[in-house]
Amino acid sequence: MRPIRPALAAVGLTAVLALAATACGPGDDNAGSKPSSSASSSDGIQIPDDIKERLKEHGFDLDKWKNGEWKNWDRDKWLREAQDFINPIIDGLWDPDRMKGADKQPQKPVANDISGDKGVTDPTPAPVNAQALSSPYHSSLPALGKILFDTPEGSAVCSGTVVKDPAHPGKSNLVWTAGHCVHAGAKGGWYRNIAFVPSYNDGGKTAAQLPKPTREQLAPYGVFWANGALTSDQWIAGGGPTGGQGAPYDFAVLHVTPEKGSTKSLEETTGSAVAVDFNAPAVPKIASMSANGYPAAAPFDGQKLFRCVDKPGRLSIVQNDPTMYRLGCTMTGGSSGGGWLTSGQDGQPTLVSNTSIGPVTAGWLAGPRLGKEAKDVYEAESKKFANQ
């Protein structure tokens, strides 16, 4: 599984700008502002002048980037600051073979026993065997999907959930996932070529049953590229490859746009988006919670959607930081970022957390309890694209 980033005393937001072929132009910290002019590449991508100049400052040429320059992970080429994020659509990059083969995870497991951590921690839960969801996934959990991205070690995967957008009711393009699925933390920067595939492998076939998968099999509702993202400053400032103090703030929100120029939003495409609860009840008052995702590390193959249902317990990483939720679950790496759902006041599924860390033995998972910091990230990402 993957661990998380250390939390700092002060909580903040890290805004992300991205270039996308179908976007009018990336937002910036001044929501609603528009550049006075823009330059276009030969394939029609609109690049606002201020963004283009920023890319030049870092020595990037968009055409070279799309032709493979993105594979350059030199320290001075690995952008980490908010205003430096670039994620231009590279049409066809995520072809079926590359989607199927993206099974690495960006971080490593935590120790099996972290009982020495200070704070409020309940006994380690008994493992709960992950159960495969029935296919087609679009009928059972249409808001779930797989997140694909590139790292210095190769292509990697996480899981994500389509969530409602207060700025665009019924037409959301927001995806909830883990912070470590978009940013490497203290010793790195933003991952690249980040994309979301709703209802990935909708038919629920195994890797062996997909020797030569088609795009329709793996991405029946298309591929959506991130043209915006937000995560907490804690993860960016202190996140590490084996977790850390930032776990209670390991969340991120992506804004996506279709690779193939569709006019439909992600929510309209999938027919589903779940609400996010930033004031979920205390652990003793929650009867059960489900963790959902596409586990890719053995014994799973990354192609099928699984779920664990358990009554949550509490896990404390740092005494003065928020206590996390913890569930018994045998899911492995790849399920990170997947939504933790419970029944909301209206009886509908509501997102209350996301998979963040887990042990080598894959017997449990932990996720952040979403509070003010998570709400700030969510609302800022919604506001950023409110006028688009």
From TrEMBL:
Entry keywords, A to Z: Signal
Annotated region described as Disordered, given as residue ranges: 96-133
Cross-referenced SUPFAM superfamilies: Trypsin-like serine proteases (SSF50494)
Highest taxon listed in the record's lineage: Bacteria
Signal peptide range: 1-20
UniProt cross-references to InterPro entries, sorted A to Z: Glutamyl_endopeptidase (IPR050966), Peptidase_S1_PA (IPR009003), Peptidase_S1_PA_chymotrypsin (IPR043504)
Gene3D superfamilies hit by this protein: Trypsin-like serine proteases
The UniProt record lists the keyword Transmembrane helix: no
Protein name (record): V8-like Glu-specific endopeptidase
Basic and acidic residues: compositionally biased ranges: 96-106
Tagged with keyword Signal: yes
